[in-house]
Amino acid sequence: MKVVVLGGGFAGLAAAIALQERRHDVTLLERRGVLGGRATSYPDALSGEDVDNGTHLMIGAYRDTLDLVRAAGAGDLLLVQDRLRIDYRDDRGWSTLDCPSLPAPLHLLAGLLGLRLSWRARLDAVRLGLAARFGARPDGITLTAWFDRLGQGEEVRRLLWAPLATAILNETPDRAAAVLFYDVYRAAFLESAEASRLVFLRRGYGRLLDRLGAYFEARGGRILRRARASSIDIVGDAGTGDAVTGVTYAQRPTERADIVGGVQAHDARIDAEVVVSAVPWSALPALLPERWRGDAPFAAAARLTGSPIVSVEMWLDQVVVDRPMVGLRDCEVEWVFDKGRLYGRAGAPQHLAFIISAAYRSAPRPNAELAAMAEAALRRFFPAMVGARVTRTLVLREADATFSCDPASEAIRPGAATPIRGLFLAGDWTSTGLPATIEGAVRSGRTAARLVDA
Q: Are residues 356 and 333 in contact, defined by beta-carbon separation less than 8 angstroms?
């Protein structure tokens, strides 16, 4: 069949590759000149190093994603931990979650011993693990409500669960749907020790998406970049109902000379028997005929809201952070990554990336204030910062980095199938059983491809 996929992020590429492998004629339309959507990167003009639009992290439980990456021959970009290890820093010094090579969940129980927590907090953590393993699913309630139900104390919430949950869900515990944290916890910590290992990239995410795109094109797929879809074309039939017939889009110039010369976009159309929409929830309604926008499942897209992420990229004239990733306890800047070290470069200048998830308070602040906040965290926690100098900073904001995964949103997330013949949905915001993660996006794309064949 002739298939058009809208959106060149992980969901769109996963769908396009899976459909192409099933011998369909697949064209992917991406509105920008780069692939990746909300998980991409670009080379920094001054340093030449990749800058992600928010540092993204994977874990060993991302089976669909890792399978896709390795199938595309991009496994060399993965940097996988031997075992789960997360270093934390607070005003009292270092503390480490270091999980030994034991079967799950014993590896996690042993790892908790290395964290600076009271025995009461450790017992609280064990109680939550038992509830995740043997208890009922916490459907329809917030994460805070679930913590209350399980008697989780203030210490374990503040030092362990809140930072971990906010990073996973990009939402605060008092807003987030508990069932999503429950499902991720089970997949990451209860199935196998390998599932909980952190997976970094040796380059920016844009490089990985380019490799996936090249794999798709080498096998016969077609990518149209700078092609902004304006409508999914749908016709009605009294006997069979509405069905897709193609996509109308605006093709902007792709050659640098044409872009600099001000060549205007031109309207174009591509026929299709099937359209897989892998665009963000906020972009979907405008692509549909008005008569469909208020109907299920499309009305759900208009009801979802976004949650922001702020990242601060910082370059120092000497090495201050001596490990690839550190969690900062009791600090608004939650995590810091040594991007240079992850990219295989040691020494100065040190390239750090600070992440603030669910950044409702931070996103409106001026760039200078956010950069100062990140620098203050370095001076607070890392003695080597004495005498070091910040040479440059970049502040990046993603206002709708993910959908806000509260219980109300979880109840209305649509599946891949739609009432319109030939139209399918994909994206981390669809009903994947996961929060807004790369794995959820890849899983949604593969699910849409399977339904096309079915």
A: yes
Convert the pLDDT of each residue in 254-302 to its tens digit.
Answer: 778 777 778 788 999 999 999 999 999 999 999 999 989 988 899 998 8
pLDDT above 70 as % of the chain:
99
178-185 and 162-169 helices, crossing angle to 10°:
100
DSSP code of residue 61? T
82-86+97-192 CATH pick, 2.40.160, 1.10.3110, 3.60.21, 1.20.1530: 1.10.3110
Range 259-296 burial, b when 16+ CB lie within 10 A, else e: eeeeeeeeeeebebbbbbbbbbbebbeebbeeebeeee
380-407 pLDDT per residue, tens = 999 999 989 999 999 999 988 999 999 9
**What are residue 311's DSSP bridge partners?**
355, 396
Q: How many CB atoms lie within 10 A of CB 37?
A: 25
Helix, strand or coil for residue 137?
Answer: coil
Mean pLDDT (the chain) is 93
Q: Which CATH entry fits the domain spanning 306-403: 3.90.660.10, 3.40.50.10860, 3.90.1300.10, 3.30.780.10?
A: 3.90.660.10
What residue segments make up the domains of the chain, in order of their start?
A: 2-39+61-76+204-304+405-453, 82-86+97-192, 306-403
pLDDT tens readout for residues 206-236: 999 999 999 999 999 999 999 999 999 999 8
End-to-end CA distance of the chain: 13
How many CB atoms lie under 10 A from the CB of residue 164? 19
- To the nearest 5 percent, what fractions of the chain are helix, strand and coil? 35, 25, 40
Instruction: Provide the CATH number for the domain formed by 2-39+61-76+204-304+405-453 in this structure.
Output: 3.50.50.60
Query: In this model, does residue 453 exceed pLDDT 90?
Result: no
d(CA 252, CA 263): 8
Cα–Cα distance, 2 to 69 (Å, whole number) = 25
